[in-house]
Amino acid sequence: MKSKFSLIQLNTGTNPEESCSVLKDQILQASDSGAEFISTPETTNIMELRNNELFKNITLEDDDEYLEQIKEVTKKRNIWLLLGSWVVLNQNGKVSNRSLLIDNTGVIRYRYNKIHLFDVDLPSGERYRESKTYESGKEAIVGATPFGNIGFSICYDLRFPYLYRDLAQSGADIIFVPSAFTFETGKVHWHNLLCARAIETGSYIVAPAQYGKHENGRETYGHSLVINPWGEIIAQKEEGVGFINFDINLDEVKQARIKIPSIHKDSKYSITSEES
Predict the structure, then answer these.
(1) Which are the catalytic amino acids?
(2) pLDDT in tens, 78-128
């Protein structure tokens, strides 16, 4: 079975209103091209390192006017949309880096909060401490859709292979890795890690990415990728803002897992398939 997919590559800034405007334009273009399921990178709505400015520009999920606008677009265009992550405020004052899967009626079907937070010091001198602001997710998610079973992950999760094995064991056919990978780590690790996760799990890996120099001073790697269950890159957008289309054939998932039956039960993560 083949389905029409698109992923969007972005260069998100610090203004959620501008981010929403760019995103809506890209969604409409992808929809016009025939896409039925569209995915976006990590931190689609805002990339802001200054906590005081971040908290000025994010809200509780239920109060987010820009999220409501995006939900309305999915409804009008009759498309499914995975917001790779949307930065939202929680009731406890912490922040979640949250994937939101919105169906073609504008309803959020699944939510996934990033489990592994990015606390690293890079050789370039860049220092990141997501845990100072963000709240770690506690549960992995596999969601049923008309396009196949979707496994959720976000960026730094990519470095924890047991999460992907557990998602595949729990029925994921397509695993998304929306990211804002740093340029320094991306140029040496991005392709290798994503191809490894596809091969290990016999799953499609779809990784929409942030690209370029951002207002917050970061530089992200781009190179949004789609990899088939045999570990072959079937679509890539190396640079710039825009979208690429691709097809997914779920029969390839079955065939890859028959040829290399390496998925076995040694579960580490708590997996849920319940809708939000």
Answers:
(1) 42, 114, 155
(2) 999 999 999 999 999 899 999 999 999 999 999 999 999 876 666 666 666
Q: Is the CB of residue 109 less than 8 Å from the CB of residue 103? A: yes
pLDDT in tens, 196-206: 999 999 999 99
3-class SS string, the chain: CEEEEEEEEECCCCCHHHHHHHHHHHHHHHHHCCCCEEECCCCCCCCCCCHHHHHHHCCEHHHCHHHHHHHHHHHHHCCEEEEEEEEEECCCCCEEEEEEEECCCCCEEEEEECCCCCEEECCCCCEEEHHHCECCCCCEEEEEECCEEEECCCHHHHHCHHHHHHHHHCCCCEEECCECCEHHHHHHHHHHHHHHHHHHHCCEEEECEEEEECCCCCEEECCEEEECCCCCEEEEECCCCEEEEEEEEHHHHHHHHHHCCCCCCCCCCCEECCCC
Quickly list H helices, 113-249: 161-169, 183-185, 191-201
> In the chain, what are the domains?
2-272 (3.60.110.10)
Beta bridge partners of 246: 5
DSSP state of 261: -
3-state DSSP assignment of residue 79: coil
Among 11-20, 102-111, 264-273, name the one with the lowest average pLDDT. 264-273
Q: What angle do CA 7, 9, 10 make, to 5 degrees?
A: 140
Characterize the bridge pairing of strands 148-151 and 174-176: parallel
Give me the count of residues in the chain. Answer: 276
